[in-house]
Amino acid sequence: MKKIFLRMTFIAFVIFLFVGCNDTMGEPDNSLTDVKTLIEPMDQNEIVLLPTASASVYFEWEHADMDGGPALYQIAFDKVDGDFSNPLYMAYSGNNGLNNNITLSHKQLNKIVGMTGVGPSAKGTIKWTVFSSKGLRSIKSAKENQLIITRLAGFGEEDIPVDLFVTGEASEGGTDLAKAHQMKAISTGEFEVYTKLKAGEPFYFVSATSGTSKRFSIEEGLVKKEGSSTVATDGVYRITLDFNTGASTTTLITRVAFYFSPEGKILFDIPYKGYGVYQTTATVTFKQEGWGRDERYKFRMFVKENGGAGEEKEFEWGTLNQTDSRPTATSPASYYYIKLMNPTQWDNKWKLMGDFDGNPGIYTIYLQADKPYTHSITKP
Question: Which fold has domain 159-245?
Answer without folding.
Answer: Immunoglobulin-like (2.60.40)
